[in-house]
Specification:
Length: 310
């Protein structure tokens, strides 16, 4: 096992360095990287995904080039946004983090809209709004910025999402993320009247096989996204996206652009990342190692989660 720390260009999810654990099996390198605050029960699913990645042959691919979106964090720093946009070569879809300050959110969205009317804008709220806040903010976004492709998790609960859908009077597609990936049993959740699209993240959902089972169970269109992984974890997310027969939405798998440096370059060409463009031999680990006490912390975490899986 190796534990590495990836420096970030800007703060994202409250962090400026992303720690991940990596190990290698017969099928290559795998990543275990639940966020530091996640408990062992939630983290165990991430370990199941890593074990699957290290030991299980990849499923059938329906494509080798995966169209991706750009990701814009909750910042209005012009230099940061412009540099990020420049890294997303040919990308036509941008997911923009919003939710904490309406005027700042509108300024951020307006900046992305200035890239062109043909740019698809997605809004990610991470469940921060009440229904009333969602109505106020979404109407404001629609009036000031124009139509958006979808809003991801505007409210935290299913009941709130159903209420929002029943009340709003602008075109609106809702994506569910946390409701599924943080559920003890994602198969028992009834998404009828609450969601239009299902977010799939391969690590939080426990691997490719389980992600596909969840998608088949809910029978909704899907979008595949990352959990801010290194190039190792992103590659497994790309494999998930490649294994989905009907993929109607650009995938949130270009978050490597948020790192100052990564283990490999998942180069974007004409708005897509090619799975055939790199292999395990392309990973470069030097200069990312953590202090011994951080390695020990991750080692202990892996063992605790392994006990839960057993």
């Amino acid at each position: 096992m190796r534990v590495i720390a990836l420096p970030m260009k800007t703060e994202f999810r409250g962090i400026t360095v992303r720690e991940v654990a990596l190990f290698k099996g017969d099928q290559g390198w795998a990543e275990f990287s639940p966020f530091l605050e996640y408990d062992d029960n939630e983290s165990a699913r991430w370990l199941a995904a890593a074990i699957e990645a290290a030991t299980t042959p990849r499923p059938k691919r329906f494509r080798s080039d995966i169209p991706v979106n750009g990701t814009i964090p909750a910042t209005n720093d012009k230099k940061t946004i412009d540099e990020l946009v420049a890294t997303y070569a040919g990308v036509k879809t941008f997911k923009v983090k919003v939710g904490e300050n309406l005027s700042e959110d509108i300024a951020r969205l307006t900046r992305i809209r200035s890239l062109g009317r043909k740019i698809n804008i997605r809004i990610d709220v991470n469940g921060l709004w009440s229904v009333d806040e969602a109505l106020t903010n979404l109407y404001a976004f629609y009036e000031e910025v124009g139509p958006f492709e979808y809003v991801e998790q505007p409210c935290a609960t299913l009941d709130e999402l159903r209420e929002l859908k029943s009340k709003i009077r602008i075109p609106l597609k809702i994506v569910v993320d946390e409701i599924i990936r943080k559920a003890e049993d994602p198969f028992s959740i009834n998404l009828e009247g609450a969601a239009d699209i299902l977010m799939l993240k391969v690590q939080p959902l426990g691997g490719i096989t389980r992600s596909l089972e969840i998608a088949n169970h809910h029978n909704l269109p899907v979008v595949v996204s990352s959990a801010l992984e290194s190039a190792v974890g992103i590659r497994y997310g790309l494999e998930l996206a490649a294994s989905i027969e009907t993929l109607s939405f650009d995938c949130g798998l270009a978050t490597g652009a948020l790192f100052t440096r990564d283990l490999a370059q998942n180069s974007i060409d004409n708005g897509a990342i090619s799975l055939s463009a790199f292999s395990d031999s392309d990973y470069y680990f030097d200069g990312f190692d953590v202090a011994p006490e951080r390695y020990e912390w991750w080692q202990n975490r892996v063992m605790r989660c392994a006990e839960l899986l057993n």
